[in-house]
Amino acid sequence: MSALLSPDRPESPVFSDGIGDRVLSADPSTGEHIQLLRINPSLTAVPSFEFALRERVARLANFRHGYYARVRRVDRGQAHALSIVSDHVEGTRLSDLLRVARERKLTLDTNAALCLVRQLVPAVSLLHENARDVAHGLIAPERLIVTPHARLVLVEHVLGAAIEQMQFGRDRLWHEFRVAMPPTPGIPRFDQRADVTGIGVVALSLVLGRPLTADEYPRALNDLLNTARERTAIGDEQPLSPPLKSWLARALQLDSRRAFASAPEALAALEQLTGEGAAYVAAPIALETFLSRYVEAVLQPGTAPPPTAVPTPIAAVPAISDVVDLGDLLTPTGVSSFKDKRNMPAAKSVATAPVSGKSAGSNRKWFIAAAVVAILGTGGYVGFKNFRPAAAPAMATLAVQSNPPGVPIFVDGIERGMTPARVSLTAGSHILELRGRGVPRVIPVTLTAGAELSQYLEFLDTPSTGQIAVQSGPAGATVTVDGVQRGVSPLTIADLAPGEHQVVLQGQGTSATHKVIVQAGATASLVAPMTAAAPASTTGWIAVKIPVPVQIRENGNLLGTSETDRLMLPAGKHELEFVNPALTYRATRTVQIAAGKVTPVTLDLPRGVIHINATPWAEVWIDGQRVGETPIGNLAVSIGAHEIIFRHPQFGEKRHAVSVTPGTPVRVSMEMK
Question: What domains does the chain contain, in order, with CATH numbers?
Answer without folding.
Answer: 3-87 (3.30.200.20), 92-291 (1.10.510.10), 539-602 (no CATH), 607-671 (2.60.40)
